[in-house]
Amino acid sequence: MRILVVHAHPDPGSFNTALFRVTCRVLAARGAQIDALDLYAEGFQPVMEHHERRRYHDKGDNELGVEDLLERLMNADGLVFVYPTWWYGLPAMLKGWLDRVWLPHRSFIIPEPGSRGPIRPGMTRIRLLGGISTYGAPWLWTKWVGDPGRRTVLRGIGPLCAPRRETFWEGHYLMDQSTPATRAAFLARVEQRLNRLKSLR
Asked: What is the CATH number of the domain that holds 114?
């Protein structure tokens, strides 16, 4: 299985980056082929320019400038996000990756003008979808707000993937009050969860 692990944190010394490295290491140890996409380290530009928006629905032309990133996505059998939850959702860097790389005619199919019907999935190759995130808020408050980042990944992206995909989510809450002990415990929990993934057996 080829797994695209997408990371979005500006500080290479952060706990979130440590989670990214552990994720890549454990999945590789389980036999997966890892494509580690560190959006900040690779200098990804998250802002959609006006000319991109104008050609957003134009098949082929909408891929200009993101061809390599799009092919990395299209070649993935699994997709794992590792990112910090900021203001209850995705960091701007990661949201920009979704805006610019998840494109009509490739990752999803929009019905022709005048026709009715739902958007059709274009990522049915993806059999594993998951996320690992850190949260400043406590678990209960995050749930009350609706956990928008998790919903975007599992309920927004999920239906574009394989119908029988395996999904998972792990969150470290109250990150601003974390201690070396809580961080170590969460790293161990993430490693255990990744080792239980059935799609890698």
From this structure: 3.40.50.360
∠ CA 7-11-16, rounded to 5°? 50
Indicate the SS3 state at residue 33: strand
| pTM attached to this predicted model | 0.95
* Number of Cβ within a 10 Å radius of residue 72: 16
* Cα pseudo-dihedral 31, 35, 40, 42, rounded to 10: 140
Question: For the chain, what is the domain count?
Answer: 1
Nearest residue to 21 via CA among 191, 171, 185: 191
Contact 9, 16 (CB under 8 A): yes
- Provide the residue range defining the domain that includes 81: 2-200
Q: How far is CA 30 from CA 3, 38, 149, 180, in A?
A: 11, 21, 27, 27
Q: How far apart are CA 22 and CA 194, in angstroms?
A: 10
| Coil vs helix vs strand at 5 | strand
Phi/psi for 42 (5° steps) reads: -85, 0
Backbone angles phi, psi at 100, to 5 degrees: -95, -25
Each residue of 30-89: pLDDT tens digit?
Answer: 999 999 999 999 999 999 999 999 999 889 999 999 999 999 999 999 999 999 999 999
